[in-house]
Write a structure and sequence with these properties.
single chain; alpha+beta; two-stranded antiparallel ribbon; two-stranded parallel sheet; 8 strands; 18% strand
């Protein structure tokens, strides 16, 4: 779906103009990344980059990395190297790792590369991830996006929940599910909110229903 042979868009379009706050939720006290800088289409015309070698049951990792690499708003940001220029995180930083990986893939002149930068920090992404062992791609995606979110929040303490949702990662991938309960007697309304990174979708194909579970919003 995203692993196309040609990424053809020379337009520079930004579709985020303001942080969207769900009804009943407090507005963020601080904006960590201006939504107007998030561009949903590729900033420049670019051919597809290098593929990824299988280094021993790394199909789950390769598929996730390729999907993230070809997610335009995320790739635009990582290609700009804006994160690494301002990153003050010591040691492991998933955003710095993804920035290096995406730039290597999309600027490579070879047909395939070995994603050792990501493989070398597998246990930092999730303690149970081990090289050579088969893993679930969706689970790896969730852990990777969570690690990127933590990197974006590094150095920002005592943030309210609404402010935490203004990172570039959260604005691209996350959403909020509102559950509303209405009292039948007094008609009082009680709302609760739950953040999510994926939503199950039902798609009908020739009389059959296919459930696409956990599809990231940006994909």
């Amino acid at each position: 779906m995203l692993l196309c042979n040609n990424i053809a868009s020379s337009l520079f379009k930004c579709h985020f103009s303001a942080v969207v706050v769900a009804e009943g939720m407090a507005p963020p006290q601080r904006i960590l990344f201006p939504p107007g800088k998030i561009c949903m289409e590729w900033q420049r015309r670019q051919s597809a980059g290098a593929g990824l070698d299988n280094l021993g049951n790394t199909c789950f990792l390769n598929s996730v990395l390729q999907c993230l690499t070809y997610t335009p708003p995320l790739a635009n940001y990582l290609l700009s190297r804006e994160h690494s220029r301002s990153c003050r995180q010591q040691g492991f930083c998933m955003m710095c790792i993804m920035e290096a990986h995406v730039n290597k893939v999309l600027h490579s002149s070879t047909s395939a590369i070995q994603p050792w930068a990501v493989i070398s920090v597998l246990t930092r992404i999730g303690e149970h991830f081990q090289l050579g062992m088969q893993q679930d791609a969706h689970e790896f995606l969730r852990y990777t996006v969570d690690a990127m979110q933590r990197a974006c929040l590094s150095g920002s303490s005592n943030l309210d929940i609404s402010s935490q949702s203004t990172t570039i990662v959260n604005q691209i991938f996350a959403g909020v599910l509102r559950s509303r309960v209405t009292c039948l007697s007094c008609k009082g309304v009680s709302d609760s909110y739950e953040a999510f990174l994926d939503v199950p979708l039902d798609i009908k194909v020739r009389g059959f229903v296919i459930v696409l579970q956990d599809v990231p919003r940006a994909l």
